[in-house]
Amino acid sequence: MLQKVSLPMYKFAKSLCVLNKAHHVRLLSSAVNQEHNFFFRQLFDTVSSTYTYLLADKRTKEAVLIDPVLEHAERDATLINELGFKLIYAMNTHMHADHVTGTGKLKSLLPGTRSIIGKASGAQADIHLVDGDLVTFGEYQLQAAATPGHTNGCLTYIFNQQSMAFTGDTLLIRGCGRTDFQEGSSERLYLSVHNRIFTLPDHYTLYPAHDYKGQTATTVAEEKKYNPRLTKTLQEFIHIMDNLNLPYPKMIDKALPANRVCGLY
């Protein structure tokens, strides 16, 4: 169910990280507000360094999955079934260029699942979100905040009830998404981060779509203090982004056409 409402905030507690070498998956289980029936797990794809997030209400069994990867759709579906959850939404933070989304595959593996992406992405989905929309699963809700700059359709999913946010490629741990392709704009990304993410409470935990150095999460306070790009002035940031000289994304020619049609190609 999608609504526009304001929500209370609750505390976020400790997490435990486990490396599963056999399946090349990094897992992060979190004992977050167990008394409020919340379940959280972070999964990892070693090829694209993509994080996928499973969130669920343990009482109603309703679950959502953020940024699934096609090659791990069976893994994710198996886990969801083992835990007794019903996946109601498979969501993307944006139209990815470095991997093919697993949303379409998950819809076939787990009937009843609906796909979600930002309306400004231009990609197909069952539900298109705009700024301020809420995604509800059980007693929990994620608020979609438009954070363009990496792409036009980038969304950050803010989870006020657990004091966390899922930032996609807009804000990474001590970094940010590139802005030199796919409607990228350094100025828009900078403003998105400063106006929509850095304005969240300092204690909010931030979960990115990727990490390339083995870190799993950060906080608003950390990034406001230590992010080497986004602590600069706007003009300094634009200069940094204009001079990264990054290689052409190796998966973009395959990923973008596939992700425009929910990963089914």
Automatic annotation (TrEMBL):
GO terms for biological process: glutathione metabolic process; hydrogen sulfide metabolic process; RNA 3'-end processing. The gene is LOC106114641. The keyword Oxidoreductase applies. It catalyses: S-sulfanylglutathione + O2 + H2O = sulfite + glutathione + 2 H(+). Belongs to the metallo-beta-lactamase superfamily. Glyoxalase II family. It is an enzyme of class 1 (oxidoreductase). It comes from the Eukaryota. Pfam families: Lactamase_B. This is Persulfide dioxygenase ETHE1, mitochondrial. It is found in: Mitochondrion. The keyword Oxidoreductase applies. Its main location: mitochondrion. GO terms for cellular component: mitochondrion.
